[in-house]
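Here we describe the complex-level prediction in full. Unlike the single-chain runs in Section 2.1, the two entities below were treated as one system.
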Amino acid sequence: MARPHQLTQLELQLSPTPPSSPSPSPATSPPPSAPGTVRPGGRTARTRAAVRDAVLAGLVEYGYPGLTVEYVAEQSGVHKTTLYRRWGGVEGLVADALDLAGEDGWTPPDTGTLRGDLHALAQEIVDTFGDPAAAAAPAAFIAAAFQSERAAEALRGFYCERFARCAPLTERAVARGEVPAATDHDSLARAVSAPLFFRLFITREPLDAADADQAADVALAAARAGVFTPPA
Amino acid sequence: MARPHQLTQLELQLSPTPPSSPSPSPATSPPPSAPGTVRPGGRTARTRAAVRDAVLAGLVEYGYPGLTVEYVAEQSGVHKTTLYRRWGGVEGLVADALDLAGEDGWTPPDTGTLRGDLHALAQEIVDTFGDPAAAAAPAAFIAAAFQSERAAEALRGFYCERFARCAPLTERAVARGEVPAATDHDSLARAVSAPLFFRLFITREPLDAADADQAADVALAAARAGVFTPPA
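The structure predicted for the assembly as a whole is:
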């Protein structure tokens, strides 16, 4: 299953191997150790990444209702007993895969103007969801959250952390005098994202560059008008 | 299962009986005719409503993956053979339930100002999703769209038609000189809804009156700034 290696995305964007692990993951090249004897230490991160990849593959192929610990064991080469012991079951596996997805080095665009940054941010979302291979995993996580409270919690944590990373984007805009000093960075980043996810997952409509531009312009107009500053 | 009878909602809001059918539906009071012999004409609408209610009950209780024609037959009192013949199967049943949901008399708020209308619109969404009984059906349809292309199509149709009904809201605002004449009513109504659905179904965060106010204010600021007018 082809999945791009970009890690610089606001939305869920997952690479098959973590950036710190350049060697092939056990998912594609099984470790020499027999199932159930995965050693702790250096191998832990690779095991976790292999399990994460198997969870993603299963979510994309079967959806949350069809995902089983047996499937993850088979795909990852990690023994079922180990999976149950370390992750508890399917809910724990999905939640941890999402936590791991958040451990990338993503930072928001820095184009020199707030307008440019917001347009770039919106375009990143449109680009990701325009690529079926890149879109499959985030869509599967969002779907899983309808059926699992732990997946929903993990999704909430993922996006909270992701929007927190957008603080410098607003700080730079404030420093340049583009928006009021008290502008809430979190609300601004959410405002860009919301209309695009709304089309994708609620109204189920196509998404293009014009949608990205409008989402960015809406957020910019609201920020300039002081909508994202706390009430006096 | 308690479900409110309000029909004046922007988002999916379903009553157990259609407004044109004040008599009890076959779901609560089975028709005297034997299963499989449901007659055409006057009874068709009640049969359809009973089937719709059964589909909703199943979606809310088991989700799309757990919904079966057998369950709908049992709950609605309509024979399985009839369901297969008229709806084709689960996908057709879900799509038709959603089509039927769109056949209500909903119109957008008319408070005398655009600001008032947008705030009322946003508050309707917050109120509905703050009520677990009212929220269950729309959430179940949105979830089903992840797994069924026909449900996704029906959801797209539902929202397109719903936003089209918001045209008078923008027309009144244009007539009052509150926004530019070329303001696209569809974009304006979507802009109010998107941030609320984003919190509900993507970032999985709580929703309150402050979120409604911000969503309305963002849409208003963008409309005033001319973001929803076609590019020159």
